[in-house]
Amino acid sequence: xxxxxxxxxxxxxxxxxxxxxxxxxxxxxxxxxxxxxxxxxxxxxxxxxxxxxxxxxxxxxxxxxxxxxxxxxxxxxxxxxxxxxxxxxxxxxxxxxxxxxxxxxxxxxxxxxxxxxxxxxxxxxxxxxxxxxxxxxxxxxxxxxxxxxxxxxxxxxxxxxxxxxxxxxxxxxxxxxxxxxxxxxxxxxxxxxxxxxxxxxxxxxxxxxxxxxxxxxxxxxxxxxxxxxxxxxxxxxxxxxxxxxxxxxxxxxxxxxxxxxxxxxxxxxxxxxxxxxxxxxxxxxxx
Length: 287
Prior knowledge:
With 287 residues, the protein is an alpha/beta fold. 40% of the residues lie in helices and 19% in strands. Strands 6-11-10-9-8-7 form a 6-stranded parallel sheet. α8 links the parallel β8 and β9. The longest helix is centred in the middle third of the chain and has 32 residues. It is elongated, with a radius of gyration of 23 Å.
């Protein structure tokens, strides 16, 4: 089955990324000068992509698309699947094909797998630290422009879930919206009257909870609250809408915040600050 992410055009992403690396449209661009100069056109390579650290894998189908874009006849064997937790030293993918093509695609393929596996690995660490099947870990919109669909895919591979995908699929009323509208209740009322089905309202004080609920909020984002305040807020909400803890959450604090009874915990650093996974690709010449 072909790799698909709703709303994401894999072929367009691959074309644009390779065009950037090759300098298409620039004077002297449109080619890999090193591979053309050093590697015979008919040479063939075999290579193995492997992880130097223990990781949660994400992005292998995207890497394969880069290689196939430049050598449609290359042979690719996936040795593990996206979402797998693997120890250091694990072989991830085996590739065989035209040497020039594989070398030209190598950096784009590796960059993608390193970045997405870094996100998936960090997400898995947060899920493990939370250790709470009754609470769901969410990402945020803190993603790199153009990479949101891939980064949110990596979050799913790490065992997390996605918050709203963008500005279109839910209203999220934050402090700046409240400042313009005049109050939490008025901001929520306007969103409801505009026909928005899902209205997430950020509150950072206990006294904002009832006005938000009375106006029609469908979820409350409890911002920068410590565990005692979160427990109090959850008690006031009393199951009327889902609750989400956000702000000040790291690997040391997530378990305590998740244990307060909130339905969700959202963490921006999952996509904003995940370090790249240490993944390499070594080629050998085929006779």
